[in-house]
Amino acid sequence: MVKNIMQGLNRKKVKVFLLFLICSFFAWFLSNLSESYESRVNLNLNYRNLPDTLLLGNNAVETMEAKLRTSGFQFLYYKFWNKRVNLDLAEVEYRNGRFLLSEDQLKKQLDRQLSQNISLLDLDRNQLTVDLYQVARKEIPVVAQLNIEYEQNYILDGPPVINPKNVTIKGPNSEIDTIQRILTAEIKLVNVSTDFTQEVQLVFPKNLVNSIFSHSRVAVTGKVAKFSEEVFEVPVRVINHPEGYQVKTFPNSVKLLCKATVERLKLLSPNNFEVVADYKQLGNANGDELILEVFRQPENVYDLKLMVNKVNFVLEQE
């Protein structure tokens, strides 16, 4: 029994000793952290205020080493949490084919961002070369890629409205000079009978490594209308016939199938269309048929189809 009591007391002494040891260690640790130290830390660089005529290249320096004097507490912060600092590129200078920030400029910018109890002693470089390049800019139109299945007797009423309809591209001339348009991702809809609006990504060409666009998405709106069909009897007019002769066609009028909205069809008549046969198409041949084509048609008509595309003719002297 005495032995058990002694063992219990010894364990209690060990626990008390360990507690005092841990407290002493923390007191020593905190005392040392409050002292001033000099050490080097890595700073992550964030470039700001880029001039409109320049773009940041892919090889831009991302970190910079600095020698600081501050308390141990501050150094713990820099060691465990990467410190990000801003570099104002409005102060960049172009010398000997390179864009540079001098050591003096770097120190002034960093000093403004460090705490008052932190002293900047030195940097790992006497200047910073910034990977910048001159850029051109131009506006290019956006073209929607539509893959739409409409319900029966419905159709897109006019071209889709794209917002914004143009985007600005900035990049080296060698990359952007051949870009004439930018496509949207495919818009796929089925059983459409009402107006629609879709927000969609732009599809950027893969070779534009150093170029940027003002927008990455656009809104595409389509107006959907119900359509009908009507057949118009339109006279055939012959052009480019020989001087001193007249051409008679058989038949002298043809049927033209027109597809448009019901409201639009009510406003149309045969006078809104013109079907011609070009005698010059025969050349030196001795054929007896002329090919027809629609020479004039009204706006806002979705589809036109000649019921016959050839007519017979006779040439008569006047």
How does the major sheet shape up? 8 strands, mixed
DSSP helix count?
A: 5
Beta-sheet strand percentage? Answer: over 45%
Low-confidence stretches: 25-34
Indicate the overall shape: elongated
Q: What's the number of extended β-strand segments? A: 26
Structural features:
8-stranded mixed sheet, single chain, RNA Polymerase Alpha Subunit, Chain A, domain 2, 7-stranded mixed sheet, 5 helices, alpha+beta, 19% helix
Summarize the structure.
It is built from five helices and 26 strands. It is α+β, with helices and mostly antiparallel strands. β5 and β6 form a beta hairpin.
Describe the structure.
It comes from Flagellimonas spongiicola. Pfam families: YbbR (PF07949). This is YbbR-like domain-containing protein. InterPro entries: c-di-AMP_regulator, YbbR. This protein is of the alpha+beta class and 318 residues long. The chain has three domains: 35-134, RNA Polymerase Alpha Subunit, Chain A, domain 2, CATH 2.170.120; 136-222, RNA Polymerase Alpha Subunit, Chain A, domain 2 (Beta Complex), CATH 2.170.120; 227-317, RNA Polymerase Alpha Subunit, Chain A, domain 2 (Beta Complex). Helix content is 19%, strand content 49%. Strands 12, 20, 21, 22, 23, 24, 25 and 26 form an eight-stranded mixed β-sheet that branches. A seven-stranded mixed β-sheet has the order 13-19-17-15-10-14-18. It starts with a helix and ends with a strand. Residues 25-34 have low confidence and may be disordered.
